[in-house]
Structures are given as structure tokens and as C-alpha cells.
Amino acid sequence: MYIDSHCHLSFPELRAQLPEILQSMRDARVERALCICTTLEEFDRVHELALMHEQLWATVGVHPDNEGVQEPTVDALVELSRRGRVVGIGETGLDYYRLGERTLADMEWQRERFRRHIHAARLTDLPLVIHTRNASSDTLAILQEEGGFDPHDATGLPLARGVFHCFTESVEVARAALDLGFFISFSGILTFRNAAELREVARFVPLERCLIETDSPYLAPVPHRGRTNQPAWVTHVAAELAAVKGLALEVVAEATTRNTERLFTRLGPAPEAAAC
Ligand SMILES: [Zn+2]
Ligand SMILES: [Zn+2]
User: Is residue 209 within 8 Å of 178, Cβ to Cβ?
Assistant: First the structure.
């Protein structure tokens, strides 16, 4: 049985197909999925999915790419995280891919936003869902500074914990994230023909720190490339991870499910398990 640790079922192209998507999940034994929030404006829709469907859970956060949206305060994040079906803070992090005319100095607003998410995660002891693109050194540096890893940290708050989602960075970045106690989540990119380097990273990350995700509707895995992705297809990510590591599919399915439960401690049991 599988968990899709990162999808966007609130996005219109998936929301419109929800009954079919949930049925495909059941058919593929993908028994739970985490619906990831990307703006505060969207939060109610994300959380409502989780309220209405036992197998869905929610996060609260504002994606670093989203500009011109409501800016999250620490208080707002903490407040919304108290809703019954919220299991994590994010997605948050840094994304320098779309700098355009701007310099890194112009992106201080993103770094500030990321700091607030880390603070909220520590106040609530909820895991962070971290998005990083073209920004791994700043992402790691800010996590170091704000996450409680400094021996002089005097906040008394728990250490930041979480997952680097849709991982596409190097072995060195993976090692740094693992050293901070974070998990690494692999998406359908792992199945792409040109992703040999990422498969090396997947070989390096210990199985007990691996999660799997679709990031649907994006990044449909082989053999569905180019189509609208969906949580049921996380099984292809698991199969690729199993192949890369030379393990049985069942071993990877079980380990990644257990890891997701270990990280997202508020996550409830799978619907069938709850029934027995
Ligand atoms: Zn992301
Ligand atoms: Zn996402």
C-alpha cells in the first residue's frame, strides 16, 4: 500500500475529476494522499477535500513562486494549522528559477516568507514541506539558521523537521538535508530517461529516509508522460525507486508508507485499516 506524499487535488484539472481519481487510488492501493496548499486563498478548498474524504490530508503554506497573494504571518499559519486535517506546513522554501530581471538580493521577500514558515513549523512541531529550485544553498542556510540547529538557539522550540519534496538536487544537497534529519521525496522525474543523476541520488538516500510523491497534476511518470498526473501513479515512482535500489516493490511501498507516517505524525490511518 502506498501514500502519495504530495499532490494538488485542489487544482481545477484534478478537482473536476475527483470521483475517478479517488477510485483510481483505491484500484492502485494508494490508500492516502497529502493535498498540499500553495496559497492562503486556496487553503479552505484544500482543507475541505481532506474533511470530505477520509483518505486525503492537508497542509497549510504559501509556495515561494506565488506573488501578489496574501502574505502569510506566523500567526495565520499557526492558526490554520490547528484545523483538524492539517498534517504539515508548506509548501514553502525558495525558488530562484524565475528571477527574470531580478537579482538574488531582490528575493529577500521569499527568504522572509520561508523563515516565517519555519518558525510556524517549530511552534506547532509540524513537519515542513520544502520546495527548492536553483536555491539549494540558501534553502539549507536558512534552515540551519532558523531551524534550531545552531547550538546557541535559545528559543526552546523543537528542531525544524520535514521533507525536501520533488527532489532534483545533487548527492551533496541530499547529504546536507539528511544531516539535518530531513526526508527526501522522489517524484515521477525519477522515471524520466534523462534522470540518471537523480537515480544516483536515489541510490544514495537510505530507504528509511525516502518518501514518494506525484506532485500531480504535474510531472506524470513514465509510462504516462505528458498526461495530467494523479496520485494513483505514485506506484510508478515506487517501482522505479525499487528498481534503482534493487529491492522488491513491496519493500519500498511499505517503507515509504511507514516513513510518511513517521514524519507526518498527525496523519490518521488508512480508511480500510480504520474500519477493522
Ligand atoms: Zn513544489
Ligand atoms: Zn507541489
Answer: yes
Per-residue pLDDT reduced to its tens digit, 111-129 = 999 999 999 999 999 999 9
- 100 Cα: distance to centroid of ligand 1 (angstroms): 19
Task: Using the structure block, give the residue that is written with the C-alpha cell 498540499.
Answer: 36
Q: Could you tell me the distance, in angstroms and rounded to a whole number, from the CA of residue 26 to the centre of ligand 1?
A: 25
Q: Are 180 and 143 in contact (CB under 8 A)?
A: yes
pLDDT digits (tens, 9 = 90+) for 50-109: 999 999 999 999 999 999 999 999 999 999 999 999 999 999 999 999 998 999 999 999
**CA–CA gap between residue 77 and residue 74 (Å, rounded):** 5
Kindly report each contact of residues 144-150 with a partner whose C-beta sits within 8 Å and lies 24 or more positions away, as own/partner: 144/180, 146/115, 146/118, 146/119, 147/118, 147/122, 147/180, 148/122, 149/180
What whole-number distance in Å separates Cα of residue 146 and Cα of residue 118? 7
For residue 129, report the distance from its CA to the centre of ligand 2, in Å.
9
pTM of this prediction exceeds 0.90: yes
